[in-house]
Specification:
Order of helices and strands: HEHEEEEHEHEHEHHHEHEHH
Distance between the termini: 79 Å
Radius of gyration: 20 Å
Mean pLDDT: 89
Shape: globular
Helix content: 40-55%
Length: 271
Protein backbone atom coordinates (compact mmCIF):
# COMPACT_ATOMS: atom_id res chain seq x y z
CA UNK A 1 0.00 0.00 0.00
CA UNK A 2 1.37 3.39 -0.99
CA UNK A 3 1.95 6.16 1.54
CA UNK A 4 -0.83 8.25 -0.02
CA UNK A 5 -3.29 5.35 0.25
CA UNK A 6 -2.36 4.80 3.90
CA UNK A 7 -3.02 8.47 4.61
CA UNK A 8 -6.42 8.27 2.88
CA UNK A 9 -7.35 5.20 4.92
CA UNK A 10 -6.31 6.89 8.16
CA UNK A 11 -8.29 10.01 7.28
CA UNK A 12 -11.35 7.89 6.52
CA UNK A 13 -11.01 6.02 9.83
CA UNK A 14 -10.61 9.28 11.73
CA UNK A 15 -13.69 10.71 10.02
CA UNK A 16 -15.69 7.59 10.89
CA UNK A 17 -14.62 7.81 14.53
CA UNK A 18 -15.56 11.49 14.69
CA UNK A 19 -18.95 10.74 13.16
CA UNK A 20 -19.51 7.86 15.60
CA UNK A 21 -18.66 9.94 18.66
CA UNK A 22 -20.69 12.84 17.30
CA UNK A 23 -23.73 10.60 16.93
CA UNK A 24 -23.25 9.26 20.47
CA UNK A 25 -22.96 12.81 21.81
CA UNK A 26 -26.15 13.89 20.04
CA UNK A 27 -28.27 10.82 20.80
CA UNK A 28 -26.89 9.64 24.16
CA UNK A 29 -30.03 10.69 26.01
CA UNK A 30 -31.94 8.15 23.94
CA UNK A 31 -29.84 5.51 25.71
CA UNK A 32 -30.25 7.05 29.18
CA UNK A 33 -33.95 7.89 29.23
CA UNK A 34 -36.43 5.23 28.13
CA UNK A 35 -39.84 6.80 28.66
CA UNK A 36 -43.21 5.27 28.09
CA UNK A 37 -44.68 8.31 26.34
CA UNK A 38 -48.27 7.10 26.15
CA UNK A 39 -50.84 8.93 28.29
CA UNK A 40 -51.64 7.18 31.56
CA UNK A 41 -55.20 6.39 32.65
CA UNK A 42 -57.00 8.39 35.33
CA UNK A 43 -55.57 7.79 38.80
CA UNK A 44 -58.79 6.40 40.24
CA UNK A 45 -58.92 3.64 37.64
CA UNK A 46 -55.60 2.26 38.88
CA UNK A 47 -55.52 3.25 42.55
CA UNK A 48 -58.90 3.66 44.30
CA UNK A 49 -59.15 7.03 45.99
CA UNK A 50 -56.21 8.53 44.10
CA UNK A 51 -56.62 11.86 42.34
CA UNK A 52 -55.06 13.36 39.22
CA UNK A 53 -53.07 16.55 39.72
CA UNK A 54 -50.87 18.76 37.57
CA UNK A 55 -47.43 20.01 38.59
CA UNK A 56 -46.10 23.23 37.09
CA UNK A 57 -42.33 23.42 36.54
CA UNK A 58 -40.28 26.60 36.80
CA UNK A 59 -39.69 26.50 33.03
CA UNK A 60 -43.38 26.33 32.24
CA UNK A 61 -44.16 22.64 31.74
CA UNK A 62 -47.24 20.85 33.08
CA UNK A 63 -46.53 17.39 34.49
CA UNK A 64 -49.13 14.73 35.18
CA UNK A 65 -49.12 13.25 38.67
CA UNK A 66 -51.19 11.13 41.03
CA UNK A 67 -51.80 11.84 44.69
CA UNK A 68 -52.57 8.62 46.56
CA UNK A 69 -54.10 8.84 50.05
CA UNK A 70 -53.37 6.37 52.85
CA UNK A 71 -55.85 3.50 52.89
CA UNK A 72 -55.50 2.86 56.60
CA UNK A 73 -54.38 4.52 59.81
CA UNK A 74 -50.75 5.35 60.32
CA UNK A 75 -48.27 8.07 61.16
CA UNK A 76 -49.09 10.93 58.81
CA UNK A 77 -46.36 11.26 56.19
CA UNK A 78 -46.12 11.71 52.44
CA UNK A 79 -43.71 9.84 50.15
CA UNK A 80 -42.43 11.74 47.11
CA UNK A 81 -41.49 9.07 44.56
CA UNK A 82 -38.90 9.75 41.85
CA UNK A 83 -39.08 7.07 39.16
CA UNK A 84 -36.29 5.28 37.37
CA UNK A 85 -35.38 5.93 33.74
CA UNK A 86 -38.05 3.75 32.10
CA UNK A 87 -41.83 3.43 31.96
CA UNK A 88 -44.17 5.93 33.59
CA UNK A 89 -46.04 6.40 36.85
CA UNK A 90 -48.58 3.68 36.10
CA UNK A 91 -45.86 1.04 36.44
CA UNK A 92 -45.19 2.29 40.00
CA UNK A 93 -48.81 1.81 41.07
CA UNK A 94 -47.98 -1.37 43.06
CA UNK A 95 -45.43 0.62 45.08
CA UNK A 96 -47.95 3.37 45.79
CA UNK A 97 -50.61 0.82 46.76
CA UNK A 98 -48.25 -0.91 49.19
CA UNK A 99 -47.20 2.39 50.78
CA UNK A 100 -50.83 3.45 51.01
CA UNK A 101 -51.70 0.23 52.83
CA UNK A 102 -48.89 1.06 55.25
CA UNK A 103 -50.65 4.32 56.12
CA UNK A 104 -48.71 6.69 53.90
CA UNK A 105 -49.80 9.21 51.31
CA UNK A 106 -47.86 9.03 48.04
CA UNK A 107 -47.10 11.43 45.20
CA UNK A 108 -46.33 9.69 41.91
CA UNK A 109 -45.33 11.97 39.04
CA UNK A 110 -43.89 11.62 35.58
CA UNK A 111 -40.84 13.49 34.38
CA UNK A 112 -40.94 15.64 31.26
CA UNK A 113 -41.25 13.45 28.18
CA UNK A 114 -42.80 10.60 30.18
CA UNK A 115 -46.43 9.55 30.52
CA UNK A 116 -47.78 11.97 27.91
CA UNK A 117 -45.91 14.99 29.35
CA UNK A 118 -44.32 17.49 27.00
CA UNK A 119 -40.61 18.25 27.01
CA UNK A 120 -37.47 16.16 26.76
CA UNK A 121 -35.70 14.58 29.75
CA UNK A 122 -32.29 15.76 30.90
CA UNK A 123 -30.48 15.99 34.22
CA UNK A 124 -31.41 19.64 34.71
CA UNK A 125 -34.96 18.98 33.53
CA UNK A 126 -35.55 16.11 35.95
CA UNK A 127 -34.27 18.25 38.81
CA UNK A 128 -36.76 20.98 37.87
CA UNK A 129 -39.51 18.35 37.76
CA UNK A 130 -38.66 17.12 41.26
CA UNK A 131 -38.67 20.69 42.55
CA UNK A 132 -42.16 21.14 41.10
CA UNK A 133 -43.33 18.04 42.99
CA UNK A 134 -41.74 19.36 46.18
CA UNK A 135 -43.40 22.77 45.76
CA UNK A 136 -46.79 21.17 45.32
CA UNK A 137 -46.43 19.17 48.53
CA UNK A 138 -44.88 21.87 50.69
CA UNK A 139 -46.64 24.98 49.34
CA UNK A 140 -49.99 23.81 47.97
CA UNK A 141 -50.61 21.03 50.50
CA UNK A 142 -48.53 22.58 53.30
CA UNK A 143 -46.74 19.29 54.10
CA UNK A 144 -43.90 20.10 56.53
CA UNK A 145 -40.43 18.71 55.90
CA UNK A 146 -40.75 16.70 59.10
CA UNK A 147 -43.50 14.63 57.46
CA UNK A 148 -41.95 14.23 54.01
CA UNK A 149 -40.01 11.17 52.82
CA UNK A 150 -38.19 10.97 49.49
CA UNK A 151 -38.03 7.70 47.59
CA UNK A 152 -35.76 7.35 44.55
CA UNK A 153 -35.64 4.36 42.24
CA UNK A 154 -32.34 3.87 40.40
CA UNK A 155 -31.99 7.06 38.32
CA UNK A 156 -34.58 8.61 40.62
CA UNK A 157 -32.10 8.15 43.47
CA UNK A 158 -29.94 10.80 41.83
CA UNK A 159 -32.97 13.07 41.41
CA UNK A 160 -34.08 12.95 45.05
CA UNK A 161 -30.53 13.17 46.36
CA UNK A 162 -30.08 16.45 44.52
CA UNK A 163 -33.46 17.61 45.86
CA UNK A 164 -32.49 16.62 49.40
CA UNK A 165 -29.39 18.80 49.26
CA UNK A 166 -31.65 21.82 48.67
CA UNK A 167 -34.67 20.69 50.70
CA UNK A 168 -33.85 18.10 53.40
CA UNK A 169 -36.73 15.70 54.11
CA UNK A 170 -37.52 13.68 57.23
CA UNK A 171 -35.82 10.73 55.56
CA UNK A 172 -34.82 9.30 52.20
CA UNK A 173 -34.79 5.82 50.66
CA UNK A 174 -32.61 5.14 47.61
CA UNK A 175 -33.32 1.93 45.74
CA UNK A 176 -30.43 0.63 43.60
CA UNK A 177 -28.52 3.91 43.42
CA UNK A 178 -25.38 4.29 41.31
CA UNK A 179 -22.36 6.33 42.36
CA UNK A 180 -22.57 8.48 39.22
CA UNK A 181 -23.89 7.93 35.72
CA UNK A 182 -20.46 7.73 34.09
CA UNK A 183 -19.32 4.87 36.33
CA UNK A 184 -22.45 2.89 35.48
CA UNK A 185 -22.16 3.74 31.79
CA UNK A 186 -18.57 2.51 31.75
CA UNK A 187 -19.79 -0.85 33.07
CA UNK A 188 -22.10 -1.27 30.08
CA UNK A 189 -19.98 0.44 27.40
CA UNK A 190 -16.35 -0.31 28.39
CA UNK A 191 -15.12 0.45 24.88
CA UNK A 192 -16.25 4.09 24.99
CA UNK A 193 -14.80 7.12 26.85
CA UNK A 194 -18.09 7.51 28.68
CA UNK A 195 -16.92 9.98 31.30
CA UNK A 196 -15.64 12.38 28.65
CA UNK A 197 -18.78 12.17 26.56
CA UNK A 198 -21.65 12.33 29.04
CA UNK A 199 -23.83 15.43 29.07
CA UNK A 200 -25.73 14.31 32.19
CA UNK A 201 -23.65 13.15 35.16
CA UNK A 202 -25.94 12.59 38.19
CA UNK A 203 -23.18 12.52 40.87
CA UNK A 204 -25.07 10.64 43.60
CA UNK A 205 -22.11 9.65 45.81
CA UNK A 206 -20.81 13.22 45.75
CA UNK A 207 -24.15 14.85 46.49
CA UNK A 208 -25.20 12.44 49.22
CA UNK A 209 -22.41 13.65 51.49
CA UNK A 210 -24.29 16.98 51.72
CA UNK A 211 -27.69 15.55 52.65
CA UNK A 212 -28.82 16.30 56.20
CA UNK A 213 -31.39 13.56 56.73
CA UNK A 214 -31.53 9.86 57.65
CA UNK A 215 -30.91 7.71 54.57
CA UNK A 216 -31.56 4.07 53.73
CA UNK A 217 -30.11 2.34 50.67
CA UNK A 218 -31.87 -0.78 49.33
CA UNK A 219 -30.16 -3.01 46.78
CA UNK A 220 -30.54 -6.39 45.13
CA UNK A 221 -27.44 -8.53 45.36
CA UNK A 222 -27.95 -9.83 41.79
CA UNK A 223 -28.52 -6.43 40.19
CA UNK A 224 -27.38 -6.63 36.56
CA UNK A 225 -28.02 -2.93 35.75
CA UNK A 226 -26.48 -1.09 38.71
CA UNK A 227 -23.64 -3.13 40.24
CA UNK A 228 -24.41 -3.76 43.95
CA UNK A 229 -20.96 -2.45 44.82
CA UNK A 230 -21.95 0.99 43.57
CA UNK A 231 -25.04 1.03 45.79
CA UNK A 232 -22.88 -0.01 48.74
CA UNK A 233 -20.48 2.83 47.94
CA UNK A 234 -23.39 5.30 47.95
CA UNK A 235 -24.54 3.96 51.32
CA UNK A 236 -21.04 4.36 52.73
CA UNK A 237 -20.69 7.90 51.38
CA UNK A 238 -24.00 8.91 52.97
CA UNK A 239 -23.55 6.99 56.23
CA UNK A 240 -26.79 5.26 55.28
CA UNK A 241 -28.50 2.18 56.61
CA UNK A 242 -28.05 -0.63 54.07
CA UNK A 243 -30.72 -3.19 53.21
CA UNK A 244 -29.60 -6.00 50.87
CA UNK A 245 -32.15 -8.29 49.23
CA UNK A 246 -30.42 -11.57 48.33
CA UNK A 247 -30.73 -12.74 44.73
CA UNK A 248 -32.81 -9.75 43.56
CA UNK A 249 -32.14 -8.27 40.12
CA UNK A 250 -32.76 -4.65 39.18
CA UNK A 251 -36.31 -5.05 37.85
CA UNK A 252 -37.53 -7.89 40.06
CA UNK A 253 -40.93 -7.36 41.66
CA UNK A 254 -39.47 -7.63 45.16
CA UNK A 255 -37.60 -4.38 44.47
CA UNK A 256 -40.82 -2.67 43.40
CA UNK A 257 -43.14 -3.33 46.33
CA UNK A 258 -41.60 -6.15 48.35
CA UNK A 259 -41.88 -6.19 52.15
CA UNK A 260 -38.23 -5.29 52.79
CA UNK A 261 -38.62 -2.22 50.59
CA UNK A 262 -41.82 -1.03 52.26
CA UNK A 263 -40.30 -1.65 55.70
CA UNK A 264 -37.32 0.50 54.72
CA UNK A 265 -39.68 3.40 54.04
CA UNK A 266 -41.87 2.99 57.09
CA UNK A 267 -38.80 2.74 59.34
CA UNK A 268 -38.16 6.42 58.50
CA UNK A 269 -41.61 7.58 59.61
CA UNK A 270 -41.60 10.43 62.10
CA UNK A 271 -42.49 9.26 65.59
Amino acid sequence: MTRARVIRVLIALAAAIVLLFGAIWLFQRKLIYLPDTSPVPPAGEILPGATDIVLRTSDGLDLGAWLVPPSGPGSYAVVLVANGNAGNRASRAPLAAALSRAGLAVLLFDYRGYGGNSGSPSEDGLEQDARAAHRYLTEDLQVPASQLIYYGESLGSAVVTELAVEHPPAGMVLRSPFTDLATTGQEHYPFLPVRLMLRDTFPVAENITRVKAPITVVLGTADSIVPPGQSRDVAKAGSARLVEIPGADHNDRILLDGPQLIDAVTALLPS
